Amino acid sequence: MSLYRKYRPQNFADVIGQEKVVEVLEAIIKTDKIAHAYLFAGSRGTGKTSIARIFARAIGTAPSDLYEIDAASNRGIDEVRELREAVRTLPFESKYKVYIIDEVHMLTTPAFNALLKTLEEPPPHVVFILATTEKHKLPETIISRCQTYIFNRPSEVQVEQLLAHVIKEEGYKAEQGSLNFISMLSEGSFRDALTILEKCVAISKNKVVELSEVEHVSGAPSSAITGELLQMLVLSDSKKALQIIQKATESNFDMKVFNKLLLRAARLSMLMLFAPDLKVKIKSELGEKEYMALEALSSSESAKKLLNILRALLRAYNELGSAHVPSLPLELAVIELCQ
Which CATH number is 127's domain given? Predict the structure, then answer.
């Protein structure tokens, strides 16, 4: 069984990062004021379907009366018509039949119209839980019929805490900085973080998750490469900086990940320069070699350039999604900075 399934929360006490949502749902259950439709919206891997399942169990819904529908593969009007017919039948052994519709924004317009009729006048024994990563794609008519809950993206600290718990339960250890690196790469998705960790566990030969293994399985460039490029930017050496980017491109590194790692390194160096008291905390998050390299960079005479470097890297990161050539925004940032 995959790690993200094995360590999926089974009750509200297990949920991390969505305390406000859990608090409200528990109050609803306690007062028995169950609505007919809920909308869970938030980025991927934040626990929307997991909490939907927990909520269904908490209101007494047995497995035989719990239905999960993937709207990405059941997005047409025919499927919704079948759903409208099915909701009319009474539950087998529960007070409520619960329908969890994942990625509901993928439904077609006719399907939404058909679903709307059911949401307007649902049978009293039916509860709908709609989950989406793109709430803005839902018609307002659908949203207005639901109680909406926004799922916040968990912090890197919260993701790292989960990883530390899982790795301990699995009988492994982690090299310093490796779990923090996974947390950063996951972009607030518990599922993505556990998927990366699972790959590392699969190739580990000594039951220790090493930073180099994380870089290998995720396809991320090593801290040495990002550190070298950052140093070239501080030194205004455009020739060497562009050569590093070219090598990264030839190695098929994801430019978005590469840029994000550069932002991370530049930010931490800046913090060490302007807030030396944070060095202890930063050191606990990084591998020893990476910390020493960034500390040396923050102590250099040209370290104040980090502010402009961060601004340029932020612009490049925001432009990556629309760039025809993936490396172009980063190359332009390099040239602008070094000139």
Answer: 3.40.50.300
